[in-house]
What we know:
Strand content: 15-25%
Shape: globular
Helix content: 25-40%
Distance between the termini: 14 Å
Radius of gyration: 25 Å
Amino acid sequence: MKKILLPALMVFLLSGLSFAQQTASAEKDFFSTDQVHALKLTFNQQDWPYLLDSLRIQGDGYLLANIEIDGQLYENVGIRYRGSKSFRTGSKRNAFNIKLNYINKNQNHQGYKKIKLSNALRDPSLLREVMGYEVVGNYLPTPKAGYTNLSINNDNYGLFIAIEPVDKVFLKKHYGEAKGTLIKAASTLPDKMSKNCKNKIYAALEYEKDITCYMGNFEMNSEAGWDDLIELTDVLNNRPADIEKVLNVDRTLWMLAFNNAIANLSSYTGQNSQNFYLYKDQYGQFNPIVWDLNLAFGSFKNTGIGSDLDLKKLQTMDPLLHMDNPTKPLISQLLKKAEYKKIYLDHIRTIIYDHFVNGEYEARAQELQTMIRNSFINDPNKFYTTAEFDGSLSQTTGKRSKIPGIVELMSKRARFLKKHAELAIFPPEVDEVRLTQREKFSTKEIKDFQFVVTVKNRANRVKLFYRHNSALPYQSVYLADDGKHNDQAAGDKVFGITVKPTDGHDTLEYYFQTENAKASGFYPRNYMYEPGMTSLKELNK
């Protein structure tokens, strides 16, 4: 039977998008980053600042207002200040929660029912959240972020970062449903914890027997799920061989790689093990979701080991930070496994080469700052001067906080990581993927998917990940190089495998993991969103 090279058909997976989001594609998405959007809030009460302060301090309610979003009016929305550490009574720079469906449960803008506004605390560039979410969004389900000018009762309140919330709309878009356990790492600890609890472990996912210890370190954002979280920590700490049953390990390694690559230490990787969600999907696996990136790119500097890192230490921070730290089990337990360690390092390598080694991030930073510069200059309540904004890429801002310039940090960090001994060795590469196709004029149909994969750079193992449609989880199987699986001669670095369709399926999405003693890699590189695709119909043409 003739074998031919079948090009991988690369398509972006849009499964799970709501009807409202699809029909809204003709208008500009509110979180698009090619313009500064406009929000206009109108309160009937003249003492609304005092009322919002009171709600933030004393209660959980919302204050009613009307809002215009890019000129579109919505009435009776709920407004309150966000529970961020930057909240100050009487401030005109507090962050906001906006609940469009507070009264009318069906009210939404382009499918979004809530909007978060960030005040860009400790970010003179106003880039950290927008660029951080853009980078990690290439590899994980991630909230979107953009810019908006905010006015309240016709007064200019300034330039804010608008962030998509992690809510049911987000979960349905990325996971196809929203019924699972959703947990958020707590941003602050309670005043008192039980004496049975470990001291100040935050949301590090250490195992504890007392359920109240978890309640102090995490926020439950679904109706139930504490038992799910306890099971996760039990498996992670006590039965790590079973971790893939309860955790999407690859996505977790992407999150950890992202945190380390860009020195995002206001995260699990930093002192307080914070600013992430965990969502348990319909297949029983928890998935990490990155959150709150305004202190990324080294604005927060403490790893939880010793004092704050200075600029040089941020630039040269160990890519294997916490690998031997038992108080960070999500890192130390996962990286104990050689395969996971190699995948994690490959993810760091991918991030820095995709965005930083080539200087793409600097061009993007300049593009965004050019777009928002006038809005920043006209912001009457901004935290930083125009001179600090203009210098925020190339120089450190502040004598106490010492917020590094993004380019100042990442130019040397990218070079450091590129040359690091753990990252300088490139993984094996897929050279060619062939699928058996029906021979011309043959009446014998192809009824299964027969792969032959040629690799270079001394691959020892090749693993196929496959599923029959995007709603299903991937299955995995190792290819053979024994001369018995349609793979030519044994030991020639040509690998073969046959996948038989099940349940009437005739399509296949797939990607490959290559591995040798030193490194691991993936093909296609953007396998998370653009896997290879084929079908029996295609093979039988």
